[in-house]
Amino acid sequence: MKFFIDTANLDQIREAQDMGILDGVTTNPSLMAKEGITGDQNVINHYKAICDIVDDNVSAEVIATTFAEIVKEGEALAALNPKIVVKVPMIKDGVKAIKHFSSKGIKTNCTLIFSAGQALLAAKAGATYVSPFLGRLDDISSDGLILIEDIRTIFDNYGYETQILAASIRGPLHIVNCAKLGADVITAPLAAIAGLLKHPLTDSGLATFLADHAKAAGK
Ligand code: E4P
């Protein structure tokens, strides 16, 4: 399973990259705004800075919502760096644009997926990734994990190569459950990824090992 970090914060991206487990980055306009990145050129420079840190898979989201504008913006983003994945919203013109990008070999991430039908459409259009938003479904008392399971079944039934990129992850248990259900990728905040490290028995076990070692060494 691939691990992406869901942030536009360069320090957090560096920290995850330094752990040696990072396969990519997802951003969105809200995450860019949270880092205070505004203005077209600053946004572009920020994508370039992210590409300099990670090995591959940097999702850059288009702001446009019409086919012609999505194509123009997406092609410009894709031209920045071969690591760029053009992130396109699940709307009718977005699906059409994904088909266009796919025919030109431009990688895409279809975002804001909340139903299996939307994922199926994006896969048919040739999306590289679909991003079902787990946490936002959980937030409205709908089980996001069931959506992952349904998309996995549909993609496997027909051999779609589109990868399931589980998004809107809230914590480590979401990541583990996505892995159990066969999601190809998770994108999560650094805190959720770091949460996978934690277990009290690991901490107490290590403390005992170190104490016993020190005692045996006469320290
Ligand atoms: C996906 O690519 C989105 O950036 C993200 O996962 C949305 O998560 P949120 O619901 O925490 O905003």
TrEMBL record:
Q: Name one Pfam family in it.
A: TAL_FSA
Q: Does the keyword Protein biosynthesis apply?
A: no
Cell compartment(s), UniProt: Cytoplasm
Q: Does the keyword Transmembrane apply?
A: no
Name the domain of life. Bacteria
Q: What class of enzyme is it?
A: transferase
Pathway field: Carbohydrate degradation; pentose phosphate pathway; D-glyceraldehyde 3-phosphate and beta-D-fructose 6-phosphate from D-ribose 5-phosphate and D-xylulose 5-phosphate (non-oxidative stage): step 2/3
The processes (GO biological process) annotated in the record are: carbohydrate metabolic process; ketone catabolic process; pentose-phosphate shunt
PROSITE patterns to which the protein is assigned, alphabetical? TRANSALDOLASE_1
Q: Which GO terms describe its cellular component?
A: cytoplasm
Enzyme Commission identifier(s): 2.2.1.2
Active site, renumbered? 87
Reactions it catalyzes:
D-sedoheptulose 7-phosphate + D-glyceraldehyde 3-phosphate = D-erythrose 4-phosphate + beta-D-fructose 6-phosphate
Keywords assigned: Cytoplasm, Pentose shunt, Schiff base, Transferase
Q: What does this protein do?
A: Transaldolase is important for the balance of metabolites in the pentose-phosphate pathway.
Q: What PANTHER family has UniProt attached to this entry? A: FRUCTOSE-6-PHOSPHATE ALDOLASE 1-RELATED, TRANSALDOLASE
Q: What is this protein called?
A: Probable transaldolase
- Origin organism is Pedobacter changchengzhani
